[in-house]
Amino acid sequence: MNILFLHGLESKLSDEKRTILEAYGTVIAPDLEYKSNPDIIQNLYDEYKNQNINAIIGSSMGGFAGFHLANSLGICALLYNPALPYRNSVMQNIPLDLSKKHSPMMRIVLGGHDNVIKAKDNLTFLSQNFNEIKECTIEIIYELAHQIPVVIFEEQTEAFFERLCY
């Protein structure tokens, strides 16, 4: 299994989280410069459209890109506190000419104490754009803030891959 991990703004995939993901497959984690490249989604689509990517995992800005990429490629996705409703501080273009295959399954993990990307704003976005997803699980973890602790990352990743394997 090939897993595409999309990190958040000014972030990287930690060694601990990489180890967790490697239990499920080969991890591809490109270094993304969201601020200097407003065409990340198009670039990722062009790079991976003909590769055998089985799952996309994204966090924050990587969750934003992962949402749109998963729906263009028709791939399952696990998104942590995705920056879906926010596009003001960092401009990212959503290519209109990409195919819309719709993600067959998404698991979206939202933090009840996230002050960077508020869960209620994501829920509003998702309710207005629900037709983009065929099957969606939304997990709201009350005590979770914006950063994803390793223990929660491990639990949610396991839940995602258990569902993905059915």
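(the above was protein one; protein two follows)
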Amino acid sequence: MRIVLVGPPGAGKGTQAAFLAKNLSIPHISTGDLFRANISQGTELGVRAKAFMDAGELVPDEITIGMAKDRMEQPDAAGGFLLDGFPRNVAQAEALDEMLTGAGMKLDAVLDLEVEEDEVVKRIAGRRICRRDSAHVFHVIYAAPKVEGVCDKCEGELYQRDDDSEATVRNRLEVYHTQTEPIIDYYKSQGLLVTISALGEVHEITKRAMDALKK
């Protein structure tokens, strides 16, 4: 299967992408991984992307599209893939369609993880990270530490990242609504959109997604 995963920040796309890719035996291709791999390997696209990133500028669509195209042409993606974070806007969605059509392929589904904005803010703004070990992550509501502000595992100080502040989260949501949300209507018009609720336990959402994709 060839699937695009969409949804607002905080919808759990990364978590669901990993489970779905494993269940479907297809590679999980995320924009973040593409950028990290190309930059660390020093590819032409990676060097160009890093120059924009170091200057604090957005990486142009053509670079992101080029990275995605290279990755989708790898042998392990011949039988399908799950795209997470790409396409990010309608221009990228149109470029993806052109790539697939040129290769004699097409998307099977676009899975939209739906979650209310207030829930997104609650999920992200409630995260607390350990200063000693960033792998120790807590949540003031869903995974509260035994002692407020103290890591259960190493007693390090827990803090809220700047990226997780409510103001930053709402700004990220605004960017999502403006740039990415239009691709939902784009794919809906093609009959590819499958929308599921992203509320509940991780395994419940995965099952919901798998059932929807089977249909």
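Reviewer note on protein two: The chain has one domain: 2-214.
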